[in-house]
Amino acid sequence: MITFTLAVFFLLITPGPGVLSTAGLGAAYGFRAGLPYIFGLFVGSNLVSLAVVSGLAAIAFQIPGLRTILFILSTCYLLFLAARIALAGTKIAFIRAEKQPGFWAAITLQAINPKAYVVGTTLFSGFILWPEAFLFEVITKFLIINIIWVPVHFTWLWAGASLKRLNLAPRTQRAINIAMAIAMVAVVGLAALST
Question: What are phi and psi of 130, to 5 degrees?
Answer without folding.
Answer: -135, 90
